[in-house]
Each structure stands twice: as C-alpha cells, then as structure tokens.
C-alpha cells in the first residue's frame, strides 16, 4: 500500500467521509435507476478487497416500481462465468431500505460484503442485483474488484 492510499484508509478508519464513488456499469436496472455506488474502504479503483476483511456497500437508487420485498443476488463473474457470492443478509428490506418500496422514491441500499479468506487472489467483476416481488431487477450493477 502506498502512503496516499494508506492515508485515505486511516481517514476511513477514523469514520471520516472517504468514500469515492465506484465506477460501475448498469446491467439492466429495468425498473429503477442507480445514481451512486459507494464501497468503503476503496481508496483506489478497481477496489482492492482484502481477504478476511469486510466492506460496506451503499447503493443509491430510485425505484421505478412499488414492491413489498427486495432481494439481493450477488455474483462474482470470473472469466465470463457468474459464480454465486454469499452475503450475510440478502433481504434488501433489512439493508437500510424501508419497505414497501414506493415508486419514484430514492433509497439507500446499505450492506456489508465480507471477503472470505479462502477466496483465490484474482480480478473479477461483481454483479449485484436487487430484485423486486416479480424477481425483476430494481437495479443491476457491475463493478470490477481485485481480491488480494
Ligand atoms: C449512503 O449514501 C447516502 C448518500 O450519499 C448517505 O446519505 C448515507 O449516509 C450513506 N450511508 C452510509 C451507511 O454510509
């Protein structure tokens, strides 16, 4: 880690605002619209995710539909093949979102992403979807990460 990114991590540990919006690709947020994706700590991009550490994820989106439920589905895409990625709580309604979700409202989906120490060290693309009652995507985002 260089001095500059170390400094940013220290700011993060002190609880100061240090989140830089993550560059992401929209992979079909059919009914919603994502405005910001924050991963903390992620001082440089692609985000380096250290095995054994936990990261906070904060996705700001507006919903195009009303839905009672929201369920997160996360995949790690390695060489084009999506591999299911487990997260501690896939219930979006227990991840900072007050359900039922209403149309045209802005929500902050906030959760944690633990990185297991048994994962291999590689670059991959994280595909994160949040699905509505009809299993359609409220949002679908993709962003590259590096497991280290
Ligand atoms: C998530 O992002 C929104 C908008 O930037 C912010 O208001 C909110 O405090 C953030 N939540 C967390 C847990 O960082």
How does this structure look, described?
The protein is mostly beta strands and 148 residues long. Helices cover 7% and strands 44% of the residues. The protein has one helix and nine strands, in the order αβββββββββ. The N and C termini lie close together (11 Å). The mean pLDDT is 88. The structure holds 2-acetamido-2-deoxy-beta-D-glucopyranose (NAG). Residues 36, 38, 58, 60, 108, 110 line the site of 2-acetamido-2-deoxy-beta-D-glucopyranose. Residues 36, 38, 58, 60, 108, 110 line the site of 2-acetamido-2-deoxy-beta-D-glucopyranose (NAG).
The first-level CATH class is given as Mainly Beta
Bound molecules: 2-acetamido-2-deoxy-beta-D-glucopyranose
State Rg.
Answer: 15 Å
Proportion in β-strands: 35-45%
Summarize the structure.
The chain has one helix at residues 3-13, and strands at 25-26, 32-40, 47-49, 54-63, 71-78, 81-84, 106-114, 123-131, 137-147.
List keywords for this structure.
Immunoglobulin-like, 6-stranded mixed β-sheet, binds 2-acetamido-2-deoxy-beta-D-glucopyranose
What's the topology here?
Elements: H1 3-13, E1 25-26, E2 32-40, E3 47-49, E4 54-63, E5 71-78, E6 81-84, E7 106-114, E8 123-131, E9 137-147
Parallel strand pairs: 3-9
Antiparallel strand pairs: 1-9, 2-4, 4-7, 5-6, 5-8, 8-9
Bound molecules: 2-acetamido-2-deoxy-beta-D-glucopyranose.
């Amino acid at each position: 880690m260089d001095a500059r990114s170390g400094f940013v991590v220290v700011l993060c540990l002190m609880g100061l605002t240090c989140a830089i919006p993550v560059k992401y690709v929209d992979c079909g947020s059919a009914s919603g619209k994502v405005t910001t994706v924050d991963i903390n700590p992620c001082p440089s991009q692609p985000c380096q995710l250290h095995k054994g550490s936990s990261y906070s994820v904060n996705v700001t989106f507006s919903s195009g539909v009303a839905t009672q439920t929201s369920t997160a589905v996360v995949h790690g895409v390695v060489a084009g093949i999506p591999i299911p990625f487990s997260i501690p709580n896939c219930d979006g309604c227990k991840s900072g979102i007050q359900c039922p979700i209403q149309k045209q409202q802005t929500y902050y989906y906030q959760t944690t992403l633990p990185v297991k120490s048994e994962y291999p060290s590689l670059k991959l693309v994280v595909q994160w979807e949040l699905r509505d009652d009809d299993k359609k995507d409220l949002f679908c985002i993709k962003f590259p990460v590096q497991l280290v």
